[in-house]
Write a structure and sequence with these properties.
InterPro entries: DUF4440 (IPR027843), NTF2-like_dom_sf (IPR032710). Residues 16-122 form the DUF4440 domain. There is one protein chain. Helix content is 28%, strand content 44%. It is an alpha+beta fold. It has a single domain, classed as Nuclear Transport Factor 2, Chain: A (Roll), CATH 3.10.450. Strands 1, 2, 3, 4, 5, 6 and 7 form a seven-stranded mixed beta sheet that branches. A hairpin with a 2-residue loop joins β4 (77-81) and β5. α1 packs antiparallel against α2. The radius of gyration is 15 Å and the shape is globular. The termini are far apart. 17% of the residues are buried.
């Protein structure tokens, strides 16, 4: 990798995986306090269908719809550039449908996190791209 882009050391990698686990559980549990803590105020959250939410919009959406029934991740590629981490890897969401049913959506998500002045990692950007239908 480029000299300024590198793989995190084990404690940093563990911290990044831990905040991602917190994100998953908080979305499923609609734990708005945790989401408020781990999402930066500048968050840009782009859902697989293309709708983009700010932090406030995502918190309201999560509280109103409770859309997440389950979230699982595959192996993540994690790269650091200073106090910015980029995590990319497979993501599967089990989602509640508006009619009370459920559906599964799988794809690849890229997340960008920032650590300000040695503070905890916070998500500043999220984007999921669903897998295309195979023909």
């Amino acid at each position: 990798m480029h000299a300024h882009i590198h793989t995190p050391d084990p404690p940093t990698l563990a911290a990044l995986h831990a905040v991602e686990h917190r994100r998953q559980h908080a979305l499923v549990d609609a734990d708005l306090a945790t989401l408020d803590e781990i999402f930066d105020d500048t968050l840009v959250y782009t859902h697989a269908h293309g709708i983009t939410h700010t932090k406030a919009q995502l918190l309201a959406h999560t509280a109103d719809r409770r859309p997440y029934l389950g979230i699982s991740r595959g192996e993540l590629l994690v790269r650091l550039v200073g106090d910015v981490a980029v995590m990319t890897g497979p993501l599967t969401n089990r989602l509640r449908t508006p009619d009370g049913g459920a559906r599964t959506l799988a794809g690849v998500a890229t997340q960008i996190l920032h650590r300000r002045d040695g503070d905890d990692w916070r998500f500043i950007s999220f984007q999921m791209t669903p897998f295309a239908e195979q023909k």
